[in-house]
Amino acid sequence: MNYLKLWIPVTLFFTIITQTKLATSQIPTTLEGPFKPVTRTFDSSLRRGRDAQIGSNVTALDPASVASEVWYGKESGKYTSKRRGNSTVYSQLYPFEGLMNYTSGIIHHVRIDGLEPGTKYYYKCGDSSIPAMSEEHVFETLPSSSPNSYPRRIAVIGDLGLTSNSSTTMDHLIMNDPSLLLMIGDLTYANQYRTTGGKGVPCFSCAFPDAPIRETYQPRWDGWGRFMEPLISRVPMMVVEGNHEIEPQVAGITFESYLTRFSLPSEESGSGSNFYYSFDAGGIHFIMLGAYVDYNSTGSQYAWLKEDLYRVDRTRIPWLVAAWHPPWYNSYSAHYQEFECMRQEMEALLYQYRVDIVFSGHVHAYERMNRVYNYSLDHCGPVHITVGDGGNIEQVEVDHADDHGKCPSAEDNMPEFGGVCHINFSSGPAKGKFCWDKQPEWSAFRESSFGHGILEVWSKPKMS
Ligand SMILES: *[C@@H]1O[C@H](CO)[C@@H](O)[C@H](O)[C@H]1NC(C)=O
Ligand SMILES: *[C@@H]1O[C@H](CO)[C@@H](O)[C@H](O)[C@H]1NC(C)=O
Ligand SMILES: *[C@@H]1O[C@H](CO)[C@@H](O)[C@H](O)[C@H]1NC(C)=O
Ligand SMILES: *[C@@H]1O[C@H](CO)[C@@H](O)[C@H](O)[C@H]1NC(C)=O
Ligand SMILES: *[C@@H]1O[C@H](CO)[C@@H](O)[C@H](O)[C@H]1NC(C)=O
Ligand SMILES: *[C@@H]1O[C@H](CO)[C@@H](O)[C@H](O)[C@H]1NC(C)=O
Ligand SMILES: *[C@@H]1O[C@H](CO)[C@@H](O)[C@H](O)[C@H]1NC(C)=O
Ligand SMILES: [Fe+2]
Hints:
Helix content: 10-25%
CATH architecture of the domain at 146-185 and 275-455: 4-Layer Sandwich
InterPro entries: Calcineurin-like_PHP (IPR004843), Metallo-depent_PP-like (IPR029052), MPP_PAP (IPR041792), PAPs-like (IPR039331), PAPs_N (IPR015914), Purple_acid_Pase-like_N (IPR008963)
Strand order of the largest sheet: 16-17-18-19-23-20-24
Strand content: 15-25%
Distance between the termini: 30 Å
CATH class of the domain at 146-185 and 275-455: Alpha Beta
Low-confidence stretches: 1-23
Structural class: alpha+beta
EC number: 3.1.3.2
Number of strands: 25
Number of helices: 7
Protein name: Purple acid phosphatase
Bound molecules: 2-acetamido-2-deoxy-beta-D-glucopyranose, fe (ii) ion
Oligomer: single chain
Mean pLDDT: 92
Shape: globular
Domain Calcineurin-like phosphoesterase: 153-366
Largest sheet: 7 strands, mixed
């Protein structure tokens, strides 16, 4: 029996419609003027997210005050099924003079299982008792797991942010009409903006070296939700955390926005963690790994990964695609060998199970590697692809570690989690050195521009 679950970020992105409906009268022409002067007041809750508060006296809302309902069915306007979910709120608090606190609007999560694969569903969400239900939306579930059915088109984005460049990326992506969206970390860059006014800078620590904590301006998350809603109200999105989601606050609490806003199949994939999990989409098994939680071979993520890889039935699900935020293979100066410890811990396991493709972000550019394993060309190794070029405020990376004078020094590129495991190459043209002096043989193509990736599966992989 096929059985498929879909996580729709209904919540975050549903705003209760309270505007009075405009009269259906015709819009007058200028010939019918002059008109009485009218000013429409700016609704600042549109920036902040309805009911979110930022300031010096924020009070968390009661999540139980609004129900979380989804009505859905296979025909427009006919909602044969109804589900209720849970609601929650989170806060981002700073016990430092001069910084502002934030508490979110109510965030709703509704889990719907038993949906049929490859099927269109029409839905509304909200609270019917107020009454406040959204407009109707429609989405299509992913195909069932088989070597002959695949999501039509999978979009991959890293490091998107919320800038004019992010808008260009999303416009192009929407034109490509994806049926599934993977977001490989660094979603909103809320932590490049100060709480005192929300003004952003491309390098927070350069602009504010004396900041008592790297504050994060949470209304960026509310704005990002509205920015993404036109697409993700109709196309499933799967996210995994990046360093910009860490967002430390009072009492050493981290990842609060990421963990509260997204529901991920951690239970369903047996990971028990929203930092790493797996799911199937047609004949593809996706593995999303956490680079900012323990990735050691002695830890629980590794143990779960091993079990998860072992369980994949490659006759039914031939393709294995893995994704995590910071790349293991990267020839740009930025983040060069930053997550080398993670590669050394986990690469052999992914290789053993013949992972086909690895997507990463973090480096704000595009780079596609040749099939590689342990820094040697290897036709059984995965193709690693960096797509950290979504269009965030930090700008695009242009320097290569092999450009003259651009080889990073040992202190550059410190990871925000885990150790430093720099290596000098043990063979080939860069033998004994930290950087190559030309584009490394494992780097097939690199380009410094903003954009997104599209993955289409046309056939079964050749197994060897
Ligand atoms: C923000 O919250 C923290 C922790 O509760 C508190 O210490 C601090 O005074 C608050 N700051 C403001 C500006 O209200
Ligand atoms: C803080 O907000 C609460 C609830 O809105 C209010 O009752 C209280 O008087 C406020 N305190 C200050 C110091 O403004
Ligand atoms: C709501 O919370 C309960 C208890 O924590 C949990 O069992 C249930 O799965 C949750 N439902 C959704 C839709 O998340
Ligand atoms: C980002 O957008 C700005 C203004 O819209 C444009 O000038 C710039 O070229 C874009 N950057 C890239 C790398 O596309
Ligand atoms: C991972 O292993 C390294 C080396 O054994 C150790 O230094 C580090 O503390 C470990 N990290 C975690 C999170 O356990
Ligand atoms: C990877 O290459 C290094 C350097 O040649 C070597 O020391 C190490 O044993 C290799 N690791 C594996 C898993 O083959
Ligand atoms: C690694 O290479 C760098 C230059 O690329 C060199 O300065 C350093 O001494 C090398 N380290 C080792 C242990 O060979
Ligand atoms: Fe990053």
